[in-house]
């Protein structure tokens, strides 16, 4: 199931801007985009986002 940026941001509790930034720097680039250019995140993308946040929180300890 593919989710748009706003849906992912709401689900995870981060800002849309953060997801756009991750895409800009190549940290989390969604696998798909729709015809109108919206980023579409897959379950694999969400798993990678979870790993990013785990690593980020681990580094701040």
TrEMBL record:
<keyword id="KW-0238">DNA-binding</keyword>
<dbReference type="InterPro" id="IPR047057">
    <property type="entry name" value="MerR_fam"/>
</dbReference>
<dbReference type="GO" id="GO:0003677">
    <property type="term" value="F:DNA binding"/>
</dbReference>
<dbReference type="InterPro" id="IPR009061">
    <property type="entry name" value="DNA-bd_dom_put_sf"/>
</dbReference>
<protein>
    <submittedName>
        <fullName>MerR-like DNA binding protein</fullName>
    </submittedName>
</protein>
<dbReference type="InterPro" id="IPR000551">
    <property type="entry name" value="MerR-type_HTH_dom"/>
</dbReference>
<dbReference type="Pfam" id="PF13411">
    <property type="entry name" value="MerR_1"/>
</dbReference>
<dbReference type="GO" id="GO:0003700">
    <property type="term" value="F:DNA-binding transcription factor activity"/>
</dbReference>
<feature type="domain" description="HTH merR-type">
    <location>
        <begin position="2"/>
        <end position="61"/>
    </location>
</feature>
